[in-house]
Amino acid sequence: MPECEIVSGLLHLMNVDLPLSFTPSDVLKRCFGHDSFRGPQEEIIDRTINGRHSLVLMPTGMGKSLCYQIPAIISAASASRIRKSADPQPVPLTLVVSPLIALMKDQVDALLSKGVWATFVNSSLQRAERLSRYAAIGVGDFDILYVTPERFRKTDFCEVLARREVVLLAIDEAHCISQWGHDFRPDYTRVGEIRQVIGAPTTLALTATATPDVQKDIVAQLSLSEQEMPIFHEGIDRPNLTLAVTEVWDDDEKLELIMNQRQRVAGSAIVYFTLIRKLMEFSDHLWERKVPHLVYHGDLDTQQRRRLQESFMQQEGHLVLATNAFGMGIDKEDIRFVLHADLPGSLESYYQEIGRAGRDGLPSECLLMYDERDLATQMEFLRWSNPDASFYKRVFYFLEHETEKVNAFGMEWLREKLHFKQKHDRRLETTLAMMKRWGVIEWSSGPFYITLTGELDPQLFNEERLARKLNRDQRKLLAMVQYAKHQGDRKSFLLEYFGIAK
After folding, report:
1. Which of 25, 291, 299, 475 is spaced 20 to 30 A from 408 at the CA atom?
2. Lowest mean pLDDT: which of 241-250, 366-375, 378-387?
């Protein structure tokens, strides 16, 4: 039996007594195979075990998840040790809220392989499997549960969760809470409400990227004070990464740079593109030059994306051309270079994407190709992600007065009515997501069906609020351009942007 099973949540099934000297360091070594903690990990874990909240900012791949996994194991194992076998009370539950459905299975499988009793519930499960897991959770099975914030819209899930004592709430990718963050998710703004519903447990918010404004907003959205939830900032500097920017004038120049980089630097690599159309054009050019590579983007079906990701992870030396749909959970240690063929929309996105390089600590290169023409694309994206008040009202009008047609003819019909020939315009998706968050609609995307459940919330078409959000996003893009044009030390520029003293 692996040693980790002796210290995991399986304990309450196996009637194994815990040693009295049981510590976080024991779990770190026995379960995860590490001899010592990194940076502030141990202090954060001690705070969490003692019921105190923390906001953790730590570079990707530096061990954020251990900050809640170790307290979860200790909580479950300690409860098992002190409770009598005749006591049917289930052990405490650690709830992990994550936006990353595609990664939950991988994270849970990794924990199960270490003897940690974890599971997930999300929309990828068939009904029978989902109900089976609900039943198991309700009777006390599992010590760590991964869910998306959208799951709390399901009454049956909330009823099951009410049977458990949630002692720790871990919020992964916590920057999604803030509308000022680079990857805002409307349902994440409900996490503060969710926290109260489950009894306001000890809360751990974790992210790799958050500016000072976003940090403050995360704490405020959780209805906590900065004194209650101090920030543990491990910094963002990765000494083994070389950051460079090259100004280019056309796609031919970009292609030559990609070719040269591939020939010069061996190993696994990612080239990021903004548009799928442009990605596919470059893919064709590389195949013409007999440069093997993978292609990954959001229009591929789930099975294709998973096969491509597994191929990249398991085999050495792959080059992948990708949109930003590729990357979350790419925990491959030996990525030797990350290129950006297009300008990202923010420094937060850029930093998160280059953070996939060189996780083994060996030298790796990060090259940004700066073409001023890319600004037009990013400005268009800003418009799509920031619908104005009149657009919200138009969508609501169609949902109120053309409900039957909307549901009969689907999203493309509605998009055509709103966007005319701009089929790539994403304002409709943004608007529906916000309406769903604020209880205006219930929206199912497969099959497509919308039910109007409330009035249009005034804050959704508040001109001042919408203008403020657009201005913030525009300033993020401006900072990205300033970084690209910066003539000094680029790492110092990033440190200043993220509010970290050098």
Report:
1. 299
2. 378-387
